[in-house]
Amino acid sequence: MIGWIEGIQNAIEYIEENLTEELNIQDIAEKACVSAFHFQRIFSILCGFTVGEYIRNRRLSIAAEELSKADAKVIDVAIKYGYDSPDSFTRAFTKFHGISPSAAKLKGANLKSFAPVKIKLTLEGGTMLEYKIVEKAQFTVMGKVRCFDIDNSYDEVPKFWQEHMQSGENKIVCGMYGICMDSDGKKFDYLIADNYLPWNEIPDGYETRVIPAGTWAVFTCRGALPKSLQDVNTKIWSEWLPSCKEYKLAGSYNIEMYTPPTENPDDYYCEIWVPVEKI
Questions:
Q1: What is the separation of C-alpha 195 from the centre of its chain, rounded to a whole number of angstroms?
Q2: Domain annotation covers residue 66
């Protein structure tokens, strides 16, 4: 069984070896021995950019090197690195480097370099992460569902919450849970949800989803949102998971559990639930 850090690095090396080929997120995540859903979310947290951004930036960085050092045609380089046309390549290249591909061929052109990622586990000090391992029975939730692309979900999901609260629909579903459920590896369904009460009718525009029985690592978040949630989320993937020897990730979903607002935001309490299984 490879470690978490080694798995991520294996996936990065696979990307590097196949930058001129079509890359599939399922194949990439397989190298890390996790689902595409978990891999993309955790990669973004650890690296500060998405898998898609990493691949695009690496391709544009290497493409610039080839244009500057060899008598390569722009159209050939564009096709080599996955662009359908010189125009789409030129737009992406110019946005990244600040100059056009043809300008990059000129001697002395200023180009930007984007180096391969190296994942390393570092000791940051004795920070505390409060969690417990619990067994939960299967349960059903009802909520408002929207599909998001992992690449822009950090910006779009908060807008979804804001829209839900401002529309008055929080009187139907108050938002006890924020649930991410894998859709196709690239996209995921996000639910603003409450526990489903089977004796109540399901309003138009709402759905029910079944959360399977299983083992969960439940992490405590204390303090004002969204900072407390983001801080704990980062520590889960950068500190807890790499050092955990008893459990590995399971399922393709995770849950944020919210409590009613407090008078003082610094006193707020919520949880992050991560499905796990024994190694």
A1: 25
A2: yes
Look at residue 133 and give its three-state secondary structure.
strand
pLDDT in tens, 74-88: 999 999 999 999 899
Number of domains in the chain: 2
User: Which residues fall within 8 angstroms of residue 151, CB to CB, at 6 or more apart?
Assistant: 50, 52, 53
CA 36 → CA 29, 138, 178, 211, distances in Å? 5, 23, 20, 19
Give the single-character DSSP code of 244: -
Q: What is the DSSP string of 181-194?
A: EESSSSEEEEEEEE
Instruction: State both tokens at 72.
Output: 């390569």
Query: Is there a domain that residue 150 lies in?
Result: yes
CATH of the domain at 203: 3.20.80.10
The helix/strand/coil state of 14 is helix
What's the DSSP call for residue 143? E
| Distance of alpha carbon 201 from alpha carbon 143, whole angstroms | 12
Q: Which two tokens stand for residue 135?
A: 């067994």
Q: What are the Cα distances from residue 120, in Å, to 4, 8, 125, 205, 232?
A: 11, 10, 15, 45, 19
Check whether residue 78 and residue 159 sit in a common domain: no
**Mutual orientation of helices 36-47 and 51-69 as an angle, nearest 10°?**
70
| Strand duo 214-222 + 247-249: pairing | unpaired
Tell me, yes or no, whether 187 lies in a domain: yes
Q: Is residue 229 part of a domain?
A: yes
Q: Based on the fold, state whether residues 164 and 256 are members of the same structural domain.
A: yes
Tokens of 213: 């029985």
249: helix, coil or strand? strand
pLDDT tens for each residue of 83-141: 999 899 999 999 999 999 999 988 888 999 999 988 765 545 456 789 999 999 999 99
- Where in 155-265 does DSSP place strands (E)? 177-182, 187-195, 207-211, 214-222, 247-249, 253-258
Q: Which residue range(s) make up the domain with 12?
A: 4-104
